[in-house]
Amino acid sequence: MSVALPRYAVRPWELPPVTAVVAVVALLAVPLGADGGGGGAHPADAVSALVVLYCAARLVRERRRPLSGTAAVLLGLPVLGLAVAATGAGSPAAALAGLGRYLQVFVLVPAAVLLLVRGRGDVRLLAWAMTGLALCQGAVGVHQYATRTGASYQGEPVRAVGTFGAQDVMGMATVVSLGLVCAVGLALGRGPVRGRVIAAGCALVLLVPLALSFSRGAWIATAVACAAQSLLAGARRALAVAAALLAAGVVLTVGFGVGTAMLQERVGSIAEVADAPDRSVTDRYSMWAAAAGMWRERPLTGVGLKGFPEHRDAHASLALSSGSETDGAGAGYVRQPLLSPHNMYLLVLAEQGLLGLTALAGSWLALLVLGLRRLRRPRRPRRLRAARSGAGGAAPPGAGLIGCGLLVWQLTDFGYADIGGPSTVLTAVSLGLAAHWALAAGDREPAS
Length: 448
Hints:
mainly alpha
């Protein structure tokens, strides 16, 4: 399969600038050992900082305007709330750590991706890189389930976590989900038939490790994002995707026996979180209530960056346990403290107040609106050609389906998770791809 790359005004031996972003994605396949999961630094984080510096150096060398006015406002908007919240942090170290992480994920890396991605070939290359990473991590996860060497789930070492370890059980689920969304966007968009068929096959294969991750939040976010992509691609494609997913579900359940009792129980628990929540859901509700209490105490500016753990016990109910338990996947038993509410919106509300949440969520919502508007913009010549040829409508741009799908996935998943762990760098890349589609209207070649 060939991936068309755009033309650049560079020397023949130079790689396209987007290769730097691809390197960040590829590094997430590097295993860090049994204790490398959790929230420690990952090589991909270090390289993402180098990508930002590389992007700045290219701008200076090319003497190019960094960002349009709209892009600068939308990507720079979160800085306002972050600056205020940093002044209210409990210590200078906490302020610097929190400010650096938020700037990396929501401002600097997305801006670098926006500037380094130059056209449709770059978008497709980066989407295939994320799909390839998902396949690699998913293969490791399926092997963990089959050989019972995964993280502990209900006392059994069967939870697929990839190379991220038991202390970062959401890492593989995030990578696989984002790769699946990219594959669906590639399959539904324009492009060679062979490439779209391969992308559809990759999406179906990734359903297996996604199921074996036992992550309810990732399941819900992926279902919402893929449904949105299908509807944006048109009614016929939406029906085709629904039929393919139904067939895949039957094959997985009946043919390969993926529908184990534990998986069926996990799926059923999605509808029971309000009536009979398990311990993890009870803890989450307690932390959500604690975050809401912090916001009511300081509604405008919050308790400061990295302030949730310090103020948690003063606002949490007695139902909150002392920590979560992790085991397996090559690591021993560890009891981890509950340091965040596992809800990005509530975390921002608690630590940055209404000011920070309005800035961050407002930036994301504006990107989504601009992306959807550009995706649904009429293309009359193409539609007329499709009508004359008897086709059921023109295929939408793959870049638009990928950008909007990734952003919808993130906004949905943020209702069940927040930033943390090595896979967070993919959040920054996803936001950059969404920003490229929504804001890079001046591309010299049409995104597809």
